[in-house]
């Protein structure tokens, strides 16, 4: 099982073992005794290590096949949700990027006295009517910058 839960437990085991080793090596180098706080910390870290080891054991040796399959299904659902969330975030980020590019090119066109304008997916330009034929002008295989240049050169915005 390569679920997030198992990966997290494995990382916890590695980290706690490493911490315990470094803690002991440090104490040996200083040749000092452990304070009550040090002993308490070591006990808590060892308890955390034991709990992670028991959890791993339970997953692989105690859990029924049905429970393991349920765990795998939950993992798949979490991955799908995470992927969807990432795609939405990426889409929002791209829209913001396109919007910023839109304003820059629009500003440049206004400076040059051009009557053309850009129309993006979420066109923030008020009082602009876009011809319906504009939808067919963009080739989806062209990158975003080329789309804006094409729109700039091919679409004339008409005041409402």
UniProtKB/TrEMBL annotation:
One of its GO terms (biological process) is centriole replication. One of its GO terms (cellular component) is centriole. This is Uncharacterized protein. It comes from Oryzias latipes (Japanese rice fish).
